[in-house]
Specification:
299 residues, alpha/beta, 2 domains, four-stranded parallel β-sheet, 7 helices, 11 strands, 25% helix, elongated
């Protein structure tokens, strides 16, 4: 059976957008031929332009329009169709009920997908998935022989000790960031930071800023409204300073290989100490277009 020739049209080009011969970023040209045209929309901001493109592409072939911006669940993931090869989803959904996110409305429990080889994980909340699925994903990642990225983000609240070990097992160390809602207890971020820094990670923790004041805990409203990330940044620097002091003690007595015997601040432990200096760099708030998920697309 002959596979249909599908042209995919994207109103916005990102690092994850395919760039093959059947990927378009505007109106059709004279050479465009297809059996179907799919207009894939990730950001709600782009819907008006996407619908304009859909009208223009109707003269080439039947048009379908969808994607995260239209609430599509992504029932099937086809590698390379709506995102570049190497970018993969192994699950959809999230158990959290964040007011600024629509993912949980589509999939309130993580929906597991077949694990396909790739090096950039886009899952909504991988760490909230069952342990056997998470371990199978990391087994796949260890086969990639390149630096792993978690563009979909990782959640500090979901981080468990065994997952820290899995992250530490990747070589070279992965590129990742951890999401933290200022409405959450700071303890959540503190524990995630101490676990990662104890494993000598260079990590970034992103604070979801710009939250509505009436969604924040009592006593946090005024401070968060004025500077949603300043307090978090200051406290994270204190975490870094404490760990740096511990490392200095370890180096002075020549126990780099026995770091677990040096008292770790805030009760953090790690079974995978590695050489190298760990630093934590909190991200400053940078507004982004509204979207139901990171890096998703139709299908």
């Amino acid at each position: 059976m002959t596979m249909p020739r599908i042209i995919r049209v994207f109103p916005r080009k990102t690092k994850a957008t395919p760039t093959d011969a059947l990927a378009y970023f505007g109106p059709p040209d004279r050479l465009a031929e297809a059996d179907e045209v799919h207009v894939s929309v990730t950001f709600t901001y782009d819907k008006e332009y996407a619908e304009h493109l859909a009208e223009q592409w109707k003269r080439v072939a039947p048009v379908k329009i969808g994607g995260v911006a239209y609430g599509d669940r992504g029932a099937e993931f086809v590698p390379g169709r709506y995102i570049k090869p190497g970018y993969v989803f192994t699950s959809r959904g999230c158990p959290r009920r964040c007011w600024f996110c629509s993912v949980w409305k589509r999939d309130p429990v993580p929906r597991l997908l077949p694990i396909i080889d790739g090096w950039n994980i886009l899952d909504d909340n991988l760490l909230a998935c069952p342990r056997d699925h998470v371990e199978a994903v990391f087994a796949m990642l260890r086969r990639q022989n390149r630096r792993i990225e978690f563009t979909g983000g990782l959640e500090a609240l979901s981080l468990q000790d065994y997952q820290v070990g899995l992250l530490a097992s990747l070589r070279p160390r992965p590129t990742m960031f951890f999401a933290y809602d200022p409405g959450d207890e700071f303890e959540t971020l503190r524990l995630a930071a101490s676990r990662l820094l104890s494993c000598r990670f260079h990590a970034r923790l992103a604070s979801h800023a710009g939250l509505r004041a009436d969604r924040l805990p009592e006593g946090h409203v005024r401070r968060r409204r004025a500077a949603p990330t300043a307090d978090v940044a200051d406290r994270l620097h204190a975490v870094c300073d404490a760990l740096a002091a511990r490392d200095a003690v370890a180096d002075e007595v020549g126990t780099r290989g026995k770091l677990a015997h040096v008292p770790a601040p805030m009760g953090s432990t790690c079974h995978h100490p590695r050489a190298g200096n760990a630093r934590l760099q909190p991200l400053r708030h940078r507004p982004s277009p509204r979207a139901g998920s990171t890096g998703g697309a139709a299908g």
